[in-house]
Amino acid sequence: MINRLNIIPLGKPIKCKRLCYYSSMKEKIKNEKDDSIINYKMILGIKKISIGNLSSLCRDFHNIFRVNKYELTNYTNDILPFIKFMRTSEIVMILHHYSFINYNNTSFYDAIWKQALHILLNDIDCKELALVIYSMGKIKYTNKEMLLFFKKEIKKWNNRFSGRDCSLILKGLSNLNFNDTDIYNIIINRILEISDQLNLLDICIILNTYSKYKNINIQIFEVLLNKLLTFYSDMNEQCIGSILWSISNANIKSEKYFSLLTLRLRLLMHKRLLKEGVINESTNVLDDAFNVNSASYNDTNYGNSTTGNSTPDNSSAHKNDYSKTNKTQNESNYQHYNNNKICQTNTLSNNVSKEKHISSDRVFSKKPLSFIKNKDKDKGNKNECTYDDVDSMKVHDDIDDMKVHLSYNNGSYKYENIIPSIIYAYGKQKTYLKYNINIDKNLYNYIINSYNNVPNCIHTNPTEVVYIYDISKKALKNSHLSNKVNNNNNNNNNNRAITEYTNRVKNLKNKKYYKDIIYIINNYCIYFIKKVHYNDIKNVLYGITKIEMPVNKQLYDTIFELITTYVNKNLYKNYEIINLTRSLSLLPNVKNDIWLNIINCYKDNFITMASVKNNSYLFYIFSFVKNTLKINTDFDLLLIQHINKKVSHIVKDDIIYLIKGLTNLNLYNNELVINITNYIQKNNTLFNLIDVAYILKYYTIMDLRNVNIFSSLALTIKKNNTKNNYTTVSAIAKLYLQMDIYPKVIEDILMQEKALSEKNYKIEEIYCDEE
Fold first, then answer.
1. Are 77 and 105 in contact (CB under 8 A)?
2. For the chain, what is the total number of helices (H) and then of strands (E)?
3. What is the dihedral of CA 579, 580, 585, 586, to 10 degrees?
4. What does the pLDDT average to over 443-453?
5. pLDDT at 176 over 80
6. Of 136, 229, 548, 557, which has the highest C-beta tally within 10 A?
7. Contact, 529 vs 558, CB < 8 A?
C-alpha cells in the first residue's frame, strides 16, 4: 500500500462549485459544541483531492455524515478514484455511511468492490468484517466475489468474533439471503461459546434475526433467553417487545417467560404514565381511563402515525455526540427504573460493562447497563470506523406486515408502536407452536419472589367489559377431518356456539401467565389506542381474541370506531384490509355495519385488480362469517366470479383456500369446481396428505364422484401411509369407501379400513344380583 505521508500533493487548490454548501456547513460546525467536532478547514468539495490529502478527505467525509449525512451523495465521484489508495478502515467507513443513508447505486458499489477487494482481503480484521457485512446487508447489495470473500474471512476469524460481531454478521447475512448452512452453523456455535459475554443489545439482535430462519436451533434460544433474565432490571419497553416478538415468531411457546417480561413491562408503563401525568397515583387509574380527556390523545391525523417505519437520521457515530445527547436526555426524556437504560443513544459501542453472575446484585442492580468505547483500535488512526457508527437496529416481520422496532434512541419510542406487536405475540402463544423452552427455575423464582410486594393498585377487571373469545375454534372443530361427512349437514348453530363460549369465558379464571397483559390492555391501552397506526389495529384484535379475555368496553368500542373511520377514509391497502378481516373473523358479534363497510370498500377499490391469491384468501376468511351476518350479500359469489376470470394464475395454496371456503359455505359453483378439478388433475403431486383430505372431503360432501380425482390423489396417500399418519389416512379411506371408489394403489388400505368398519363388537350382558 502506498505511504501517503511521503507523497507531495499535486497541483494547487482550485475553486469549487460547492462553496455555498461549505459556508453553510461551516456555520453548522461552529454551532456545534466545542467537544463535538474539531474546528478545521475542510477540503472535501473545496480543494482538489489528491493522494496526499486522503486523510483529510476521510475526516471530512465522516463529519459531513454527522452534520448532514444525505449530502454524502454529492461526493461519490470525488471518492471513487481514490478507493484503491485508502486504508481498510476508511473503506469500511465509506461503505457503512452510504449504506446507512440507503444509497442504492449498484454501479457505485461495484466500482468500490472492484478496487477494494484486494485491500480488504489482506488487511481486514474481524470487527471491520462484521461491520461491512452488516452494511452490505442493509442495502441488500450482492456480489459473487464479495460473498466468497465474506465466507472465507468468516472461517478465518471465527475464533475471534465478539458478541457484537456475531450479531451484525448474522443480521447482514440474513438480509443478503445467504444460504450457506455451514457458515450459519459457525456463527451459531460461536454465539453459544461466548454466550456469557453477550450484552443485552447483542442478544436482541441475534434473536430477532434468528427467529426468521426456517430451521432454528432451539438450544440457542434457551441459552440466550436465560441469559436475558440476568438483564431483567435493564430491559426497557422496546427490548421487551423485541424479545416477545422473536419468541412467537420462532414458533416457541413459553408462557412463563412471557409473564416475566410482561410484569416488567407493566411496571415500566405505570411509572412512565405516572411521570408524564397521564395517570394519578392518588386516584384509581381505571377511573382515569374512563374519564380521560380525549383531546389530549385525539390524533387528528388518523392512521398517519408511524409504526416505527421511519428511519431516524439523528443517530450519530461519534463520541462527542454521545455526551451531547446524554445531557439532553437527562433533561427531557423519560428515564425508567432508576436510570436503567439499555442504551443512551444510537451511538452503540462495542463492549458492554463488566457483567456479574446471576445473583440478587445482578438481576436488580440499580447501576445502568453501560456501553463503553472500544479502546482496542489503533489510536493513531482517527478515521477508523467502529461499531459506534452502526445505526439503530430495526426488526421487520413479514406476517401481516407487522414491524417491530428496536431503536435504542433516547427513549423516543412510543407505546402505540410497541404494544400492538406485544399483544399480537401474546395471542400467538395461545395457538399451536412447534417448540417449547425451559427457563432457569432458580432465576425465575427469584424474580417472581422479588416482586411479591409490588402493589396492585389497579383493578384488573373494568366495571364494564365485553367478553372476547375466538369463534373460529368452534368452526374449525366442526370442519375437522375426523368429523363424519353427511350430505344433510346444515351449518352450525352460531348462536348456540356463542352462548357456549360466552358461558365458558365468564367462568374462566385467566391463567396467571396472562394477568399482566390483560392488566395492560384494560388499563393502559385506552390512553394511546387512537394513536396506534391503522394497520396495527388488527394485531391488537388478534391478540385479545386469542387470549380470550374480558376487555374494557370503552377500549373495545373505540377500536371499532377507529376501524370505521380508517375504512371510510380508504387508508387500507389491498392486503391490509384482508388481514383486518382475518382478525375480525375471529371475533363474536361484530356489527354488520362494519362488515358492510369493509365489503363495500373492497368491492369499490380492490376486487377487480386484486390477484387470485388475495381473492382466494379473502373468500376463505369470508366463509367463516357469512352465515353469522344479518345482511344479504353476494360477496362470496362476486369473489368467485373474479377468481374464475384469472384462473390461469391460480396456484396450489389458492386451491386449498377455495376448497376450505366452499366446504365452510357448503357451496357448489360449477365453473369454479371445474377449474379446481382441472388444476388438481394436472398437479396432483403438489398436494400433501392434509390437502388431499380436504379436497376429497369436499368432493364427498358435494357427492361429486370424480374417479379421476380420487385415483390421481391415491398415490399421495400410499406414500404417506405411515404410523404417524394413521388417523388421517383412516379418515381419507372412509371417504373412498363412502364414494365406492377403489383405486388399486391403495386397495389394501381400503380393504383394511372396510374390515374394521364392518367388525362386530360383542358386548357382554351385565346381570344384576337379585335381591
1. no
2. 35, 8
3. 90
4. 79
5. yes
6. 136
7. yes
Q: Report the chain's C-alpha Rg in angstroms.
A: 31
Per residue in 223-260, pLDDT tens?
Answer: 999 999 989 988 999 999 999 999 999 999 998 899 99
For residues 237 and 412, is the Cβ–Cβ distance under 8 A?
no
Contact between 713 and 700 under an 8 Å Cβ cutoff? The reply is no
Distance between CA atoms of residues 353 and 370, nearest Å: 6
Q: Rounded to a whole number, what is the distance in angstroms from the first to the last CA of the chain?
A: 111
Closest by Cα among 394, 486, 463 to 738: 486
Cα(165)–Cα(129) distance, integer angstroms: 8
**Structural element, H or E, at residue 698:** helix 689-701
| The C-alpha cell that represents 28 in the structure block | 453548522
Domain map (residue ranges) of the chain: 53-197, 217-277+413-480+508-550, 570-669, 687-770
Q: Are the beta carbons of 169 and 136 closer than 8 angstroms?
A: no
Beta bridge partners of 552: 465
Q: Are 199 and 230 in contact (CB under 8 A)?
A: no
pLDDT confidence tier of residue 84, bands split at 50, 70 and 90: confident
**H-run or E-run covering 749:** helix 747-758
- Report how far residue 598's alpha carbon sits from residue 601's, in angstroms, rounded to the nearest whole number: 5
**Res. 393: pLDDT tops 50:** no
Strands (E), 155-306: 252-253
Determine the Cα–Cα distance for residues 100 and 179; give it in Å rounded to an integer: 24
Counting Cβ atoms within 10 Å, is residue 380 exposed (0-12), middle (13-18) or buried (19+)?
exposed
Helix (H, G, I), strand (E, B), or coil: what is residue 94? helix
Burial of 303 (0-12, 13-18, 19+ CB in 10 A): middle
Burial of 589 (0-12, 13-18, 19+ CB in 10 A): exposed
Residues facing 549 on adjacent strands: 468
> Which of 450-454, 513-517, 596-600, 714-718 comes out lowest in average pLDDT?
450-454
Cβ atoms of 75 and 42 within 8 Å: the answer is no
Burial bucket for residue 377 (CB in 10 Å: 0-12, 13-18, 19+): middle
Q: What would the DSSP string read from start to end of 432-478?
A: --SEE----HHHHHHHHHHTTT----S-SS-SSEEEE--THHHHHHH
Evaluate whether 429 touches 511 at the Cβ level (below 8 Å): no
Candidates 410, 423, 415; CA nearest to 307 is 415
- Residues facing 550 on adjacent strands: 467
User: What secondary structure does DSSP assign to 556-576, as a single string?
Assistant: HHHHHHHHHHHHHTT---HHH
Q: How far is CA 641 from CA 217, 348, 638, 667, in A?
A: 45, 55, 5, 14
Which comes out higher in pLDDT, residue 767 or 163? Answer: 163
**3-state class of 549 per DSSP?**
strand
Rounded distance, CA 606 to CA 234, Å? 46
CB 169 within 8 A of CB 131: no
According to DSSP, residue 769 is labeled P
The Cα–Cα gap between 136 and 614 comes to 33
As a whole-number percent, the residues of the chain with pLDDT over 70 amount to 69
Question: Could you tell me the maximum CA-CA distance found in the chain, to the nearest angstrom?
Answer: 126
d(CA 732, CA 747): 13
The candidate with the shortest Cα–Cα distance to 494, out of 362, 592, 381, 624, is 624
Q: Is the pLDDT of residue 323 over 70?
A: no
**Pick from 119, 99, 122: nearest CA to 172:** 99
